[in-house]
Amino acid sequence: MFAVLICLPPSEGKTPAPADAAPADLTTLSAPSLTPQRTAVLDALAAVSARPDAASVLKVGASLAEEVARNAGLRSAPAEAASRVYTGVLYAAAGLAGLPDDAARRAAQSVRIFSGLWGVVAPDDRIPAYRLSMGVDLPVVGKLATVWRPYLTEALEAQAAGDVVVDCRSAAYLAAWKPATTGTRAADWVTVRVVREADGMRTVVSHNAKHTRGVLTSHVLRRVGDPPSSAEGLLDAARELDGEVIGTEVGTGLSYRMVEATLHGPTTRSGPRTLELVIA
Fold first, then answer.
1. Cβ-based burial of 129 (10 A; exposed 0-12, middle 13-18, buried ≥19)
2. β-sheet bridge partners, residue 8
3. How high is the pLDDT of residue 96?
């Protein structure tokens, strides 16, 4: 087994599958223990999405009305591999849909994408495009991060035990599951923070952070040699990118490179360590 669990957030935008594609079969998704809860959330989402106040309940703007309406028919909607449905900055950089065979097998084993609708999916799991974030309080079901937590703990804790967990998720999805860091199922939990260095100052970035996390994901999956099996091993893998041009600034078109990778923490006994990636 690939001794790494890479946790990714979903993309906000999602690319619909081809119109002639078959619908999703929930029984074929990874983590089959989640099927009953996936079914419950799917049914509740369909009901809410048919209501006049659906956009308000789902915390989206009026411009997304078409996507919200599409939620009502997800059971029969065309489905595609999650690696193709999830799009955006992180996924473009990670390139999950175009990995070579060895890296694709590693991704199938180790990459898990968190979702307000599905709980968690693997890159090859076939899903339809949908609109639902983990921060929603879904009628009938409840607050999704809270509702999903026990199910995700059951589904993921054994897989994560003894591995290094590379956590690229945002706060809303982090709330749905946190790896154990003590006891027999302890994992080496590492969150990834990206900062930009300019004029001697380091500041947190957003767009570039998503891209850089995608670059790190791709590198961990594609690199030659033994996979990292600890936070220190992950740090060594990240340092292989030092000095490389890894992206282009939005607006200016200027390229940026990896400057440094360092490991910090944890700040609490049950908290993660932090891999800080510096770009410039």
1. buried
2. 113
3. 98
Question: What pLDDT band is residue 166 in, cutting at 50, 70 and 90?
Answer: very high
- CA separation (Å) from 190 to 108, 131, 167, 242, 274? 20, 28, 6, 19, 5
Residues found in the chain: 280
Signed CA dihedral, 230, 236, 237, 238: sign only: positive
Kindly tell me the burial class for residue 237, based on how many C-beta atoms sit within 10 Å of its own C-beta (0-12, 13-18, 19 or more): buried
Give the pLDDT confidence of 95-138 residue by residue, as tens digits. Answer: 999 999 999 999 999 999 999 999 999 999 999 999 999 999 99
Q: Which sign does the torsion angle of CA 265, 268, 273, 276 carry?
A: negative
For the chain, the 3-state helix, strand and coil shares in percent, each to the nearest 5, are 40, 25, 40
Task: For residue 9, give the nearest of 155, 170, 203 by alpha carbon.
Answer: 170
Q: What pLDDT band is residue 167 in, cutting at 50, 70 and 90?
A: very high
Beta bridge partners of 191: 167, 274
Q: Is 18 helix (H, G, I), strand (E, B) or coil?
A: coil
Express each pLDDT in 27-69 by its tens digit: 999 999 999 999 999 999 999 999 999 999 999 999 999 999 9
Pairing of strands 255-264, 245-248: antiparallel
| 192 contacts 268 by C-beta, under 8 angstroms | no
Task: Output the pTM of the full model.
Answer: 0.96
Helix (H) or strand (E) holding 67: helix 65-70
- End-to-end CA gap in the chain: 35
DSSP string across 144-198: HHHHHHHHHHHHHHHHHTTSEEEE---HHHHTT-----SSTT--EEEEEEEEEEE
78-94: average pLDDT: 97
